[in-house]
Amino acid sequence: MMQIFALTKAGIEKLETVDKGKKLWIVVGDKKEAKKALESVDIVNSFFLELIDKERRDRVEEFEGGVFIILRNPKNSVRLSFVFGKNFLISIGGEYSEAKKRIEMDENVRSLELLLYLQLKSVLDDYLETIESIEEEIEKLEKELLSKPDESVMKKLYSINRKLTKLRRFSWPLRDVFGTLEAEKILSDKQRFRDLYEYSIQVIESTEVDSELLAEMIEIYLESINRRLSEIMKVLTIVSTIFIPLTFITGVYGMNFRNMPELEWEYSYPAVLLSMLVITIAMLFYFRKRGWI
Q1: How does strand 11-15 pair with strand 79-85?
Q2: CA distance 135 to 164
Q3: Among 17, 93, 123, 256, whose Cα sits 20 to 30 Å from the Cα of 282?
Q4: CA 34, CA 31: separation in Å to the nearest integer?
Q5: Cβ neighbours around 188 below 10 Å, total
Q6: In 3-state terms, what secondary structure has residue 14?
């Protein structure tokens, strides 16, 4: 559904039809209405419609008298499009109640440029909120990793890694988008959009730092698993080594040769058991002295 508003000194006025004599804010929730919204302000370039429908990468496109912006909401992956001209702003997709409330409350800031700024800043705020949420998950998982590095921790690590990889892919174009916007001649408040550019850099750097931290955590987990496997293999090797001479002894006396003097000796059975015990103790003492156990 297409909603049409006019920015006036008294506030935001809802219109039934487009009045080109006023500063217009057109909100389009459905992409099917985007063509109608563009045509209402005399934009008939089909290229913009193709961008709305098919473009996957965030970008800025200039046109005569205005600028076209595509961003992606990191929370739900919805593409948001903004078409900004001298006397109009078209917002396609998303939810803009906070920006509308800000404009209604402050009569000193009722401008289309500020409205665009607030909406773009809201997108970056969503990025930062998503990053903070991921960082909280990483912090909790870090404690689990140190206390109990089991398979469930690894599943959580990979789950967070998928979220972070997706967020990084979304955030990479932000620098170019806001760097281009900062240089746009149609935008008068350069400092405001310069702040957005620096904000986008902060978002990108945060995702990179979190990615490096997560990679280190995955490496720590794999190292802990390898250490556990090494400990298990060491114990199994020691047990196997101890049983080698014991198996040899039982093998010798299990051959049942006829001429074996020890078989006729009264104390042969306890003597063999005692010798096996002595060999076991001696080997354990030797392993401990060498620092193997």
Answers
A1: unpaired
A2: 10
A3: 256
A4: 5
A5: 10
A6: strand
Q: Each residue of 83-125: pLDDT tens digit?
A: 998 889 998 887 777 777 777 776 666 788 888 888 899 899 9
Three-state secondary structure call for residue 19: coil
What type of residue sits at position 250? Answer: T
CA distance 276 to 248: 10
CATH code 1.20.58.340 for 227-289:
yes
Q: For residues 150-164, b (16+ Cβ closer than 10 Å) or e, as one string? A: eeebeebbeebbebb
134 is written with which tokens?
A: 């991921």
pLDDT tens per residue across span 8-60? 777 778 888 888 888 888 888 777 788 888 888 888 777 777 777 666 678 88
Q: Which residues contact 162 (CB under 8 A, 6 or more apart)?
A: none
Spell out the residues 6+ positions from residue 188 whose beta carbon is closer than 8 angstroms to its own. Answer: 113
Helix (H, G, I), strand (E, B) or coil at 150: coil
Question: Per-residue DSSP letters for 30-83?
Answer: SGGGHHHHHHHTT---HHHHHHHHH--S-EEEEETTEEEEEEE-TTT--EEEEE
Query: What is the residue extent of each domain of the chain?
Result: 2-223, 227-289
**Separation of alpha carbons 34 and 50, rounded Å:** 11
Taking domain 2-223, whether its CATH number is 3.30.460.20 is answered by: yes
The set of long-range contacts for 182-188, using a CB threshold of 8 Å and a minimum separation of 24, is 184/60, 184/62, 184/67, 186/65, 186/66, 186/67, 186/84, 186/85, 186/86, 187/67, 187/84, 187/113, 188/113
Question: d(Cα 176, Cα 204) in Å, to the nearest integer?
Answer: 11
User: Crossing angle of helices 190-252/174-182, nearest 10°?
Assistant: 170
